[in-house]
Amino acid sequence: MTKLKLTKKKAKSTDASAIFIFGFVMLWGVFTVPEVFVTPFIISLFVVSFLLYIKFKKHSALRKSNIEQIDLMNGVQFEEYLMELFTTLGYKVKSTPRSGDYGADLILRKNRRTIAVQAKRYKGCVGISAVQEIIGAQKYYNADDIWVVTNSYYSKSAINLGSVNNVRLIDREGLIKLSHRLLK
Known about the structure:
Helix content is 59%, strand content 15%.
């Protein structure tokens, strides 16, 4: 897969440009050789419209998630929500493998900085182990910063260890603030 460095606006314009070029070529084909291009044009128009609709619905639903909806998510859905959230906030986001992730769930990149993120969708307090995991992930992923993001709160020991190791702890209120930035 090719890695492109595009901002959100550039990525959207690239998508729109590709769709415009594809549509232009198909229309040109319909008018020059209609017996060959009409059926593929109609089929491709339907497929592209359907895929764009699915993409829009998925991203729209994730963007509109409020904290009560986040509380109902499972861990994988929470990670997907955070991927969408950070992507919209301008980060390049990569997820790590589900198992053997060395303590990080997401890797964010922005302004030549790498951030390793541990996502914890919890009902109770997030303990010290989450902070220990992300500290361990810092060197493995060569991260400049390390974060733990939760829909809950942190135990006192997690806060203390995070403070000593410069871990950014984003708790329930912090997640709500980030989500509100997304909705603006």
